[in-house]
Amino acid sequence: MKVVFLENVPNVAKAGDIKEVSDGYARNYLLPKKLAVVSQPGAVESVKALIESKTETEQLKKLAAEIDGKEITFRVKMGARERMHGSITAANIATELQNTTGQTVDKRKIELAEPIKHLGSYDIPVKLAKEIEPKIKVNVIEKEQDKETTKEAVEEPENKPE
Q1: Beta strand residue intervals within 16-119, DSSP E
Q2: What pTM was estimated for this model as a whole?
Q3: 81 and 57 in a common domain
Q4: Which residues does residue 152 pair with via DSSP β-bridges, in sequence order?
Q5: What range defines the domain where residue 88 resides?
Q6: Measured CA distances, 23 to 19, 30, 31, 38, 145 (Å)
Q7: What is the pLDDT of residues 13-52, one digit of tens each?
C-alpha cells in the first residue's frame, strides 16, 4: 500500500515522504495512529501544506517564547497639564520590539485598542496566531529634562537690567 507520512516515523520515513509499506503495517499501525494517509491524488499537496503550517506554527511559538514578558520603555516629553506630546502606537511598539529583541513583529499583530496617551505601565497582547498570544509590558515614563536650564532661561530675562 502506498502512503504519505504525516509524521516522522523513526527508521521508516520522514513527514511528507511517500512510501510503499505492507498493507498490515499501514492498516494496523500507521493509519489508526494518524501517522500516514493513503496516497491519493491531491493527498500529497494537502500533506505538504499541513507540514508547512506545522513548521510555521513552531516558528511562531519560538517567537512567542522570545518576546513573552519583554519589557519596553518609552521616554516621552510631557507638556502642560501632564499631557504627552504625541502618542505611542502599535507601529512604535513593533519598532521598539524589533530593536530590543531583533525579531520582526507585524504592527497589526499588536492588539492596541487605542494609542497610548498617558504615562504608566501597560500589558499589551501580541496575537501571532489563533492560540499563540504572548504579552509584553510597555512602560511610558517622562523624559528627564534639564530643569535647571529651563529655570535659568526663565529667570535670565527678569534679572537683566535694561
Answers
A1: 18-20, 36-38, 71-76
A2: 0.58
A3: no
A4: none
A5: 65-149
A6: 12, 10, 10, 10, 77
A7: 888 788 899 999 999 999 999 888 888 877 777 777 777 7
